[in-house]
Amino acid sequence: MSDLIRLTGLRMTGYHGVFDFEKTEGQPFVVDAELELDLTAAARTDNVIDTVSYADVADLIEDVVSKERFDLIETLADTIARAILFSDERIRATTITVHKPRAPLTQEFDDVSITVRRAREDLDPMLVTIGTGSVPRIMKQMEAEAAADNAAPTRDPDLPASFPVRAVLALGSNLGDSRATLASAVDALKAAEGVTLLNTSPLARTKPVGGPDNQRDYLNQVVEIETQLSPHELLNLVQRVEEEHNRVREERWGPRTLDVDIVTYAGAVIDSPRLQVPHPSAAERAFVLLPWSWMDPVALLDGTPVRELAVQAADHGDVERLE
């Protein structure tokens, strides 16, 4: 069962109808919208970034109603529904009712309305194809904005976040009691000032990638945190956690008691002498991607589903999930 966000009785002027005067003079339309999504994260964090803004949805509906021109309110409702799904991947489905209280009827009536429901699986085959194949302007605009958004911003690694942002960290160990080490490292991150632990993946047993022969298998884990620390401050923190767990840097890809890497930071690109984010090899490492996908099945890395990247990774068959 999904949680719901409802907007009812949104009133605005539109220019829709089969008669010419309807497209030139305009008339009032009323829209009800119901969004199906998971609100668990928002309820837990009390943070607006973890939910869908109903104000943004209302603005989007108004844009479609006021800027497009359709003969049928069926097409209007379908366009609104698809635009909403396209606007935020967290929305699983939406139900849209369009009321046309001044429809050109000769009889007395209270209202004329239609209701459509569209789910995310309905989006791909006809992402922006409406009616006879025309693409409404609002959808073209949204496509352009989405393409621009895919260019991740470059971030100053010394600049703290102005509000809490999310980061994904990858942990690994193949010396000593690795299971206890990972548990202790997660506890240290959880207790660190300026960090909130949001989620942890199951453990994975993995084969070593690179480095000397005859290494032990690794235990790997991925965690998601929220922080306002700058990227370099977060790097200082994870390196301190490594040192507290006797990490020694003597050999590249050699055995280690603990390795903690910053995989992502607020969807930003960071390129400094000390830190590169997204982590340069994360997209090719199933020992990172698979635990990450177990923790968050809808996670994306550079716009690609993490679960898809994991299947393509060369070491995919060498990762074993530990319950």
Write the layout of secondary structure elements.
Blueprint: E1 3-14, H1 20-25, E2 27-37, H2 40-45, H3 54-67, H4 73-87, E3 93-99, E4 113-119, H5 137-149, E5 165-173, H6 178-191, E6 195-200, E7 203-206, E8 218-227, H7 231-244, E9 259-265, E10 270-271, E11 276-277, H8 286-295, E12 300-301, E13 304-305, H9 306-312, E14 319-322
Antiparallel strand pairs: 1-2, 2-3, 3-4, 5-8, 5-9, 6-8, 7-8, 7-14, 10-11, 12-13
Describe the structure.
With 323 residues, the chain is of the alpha+beta class. The chain folds into two domains: 3-149, GTP Cyclohydrolase I, domain 2 (2-Layer Sandwich), CATH 3.30.1130; 165-322, Alpha-Beta Plaits. It has nine helices and 14 strands. The protein has helices spanning 20-25, 40-45, 54-67, 73-87, 137-149, 178-191, 231-244, 286-295, 306-312; strands at 3-14, 27-37, 93-99, 113-119, 165-173, 195-200, 203-206, 218-227, 259-265, 270-271, 276-277, 300-301, 304-305, 319-322. Strands 5, 6, 7, 8, 9 and 14 form a six-stranded antiparallel beta sheet that branches. Strands 1-2-3-4 form a four-stranded antiparallel beta sheet. A two-stranded antiparallel sheet has the order 10-11. A hairpin with a 2-residue loop joins strand 12 (300-301) and strand 13. Helix 3 packs antiparallel against helix 4, helix 4 (73-87) runs parallel beside helix 5 and helix 8 packs antiparallel against helix 9. The longest helix is centred in the N-terminal third of the chain and has 15 residues, at 73-87. Residues 124-135 have low confidence and may be disordered. Catalyzes the conversion of 7,8-dihydroneopterin to 6-hydroxymethyl-7,8-dihydropterin. Its EC number is 4.1.2.25, 2.7.6.3. It catalyses: 7,8-dihydroneopterin = 6-hydroxymethyl-7,8-dihydropterin + glycolaldehyde; 6-hydroxymethyl-7,8-dihydropterin + ATP = (7,8-dihydropterin-6-yl)methyl diphosphate + AMP + H(+).
